[in-house]
Amino acid sequence: MNNVNRRDFLKLSGSTLIGLTLGGVALNANAQEKLKLDDPTAMALKYVHKSEVEGKKCSNCLLIQGEDGQEWRPCGAFPGKLVNANGYCSAWALKPS
User: Given a cut of 60, is residue 95 above it in pLDDT?
Assistant: First the structure.
């Protein structure tokens, strides 16, 4: 059984917290390019910049990342790309309240 003292535990916890925070910042920093409608993945998932499906848009999708209120945000379905918060694609899944 490993014996971890309080000082080692705090160092490990602090390092983990910093790593997770910087990892999230790096993910958002990598997503800089707006998704184009002619992108192969966008075409495959039938992405549009403005949803025509009642009650379904990127801003209320489980896959969207970033802060509410931003017009263009990162999306898990399109790594490295930004989607319009008013957009929609076939990968849409309701974000839990």
Answer: yes
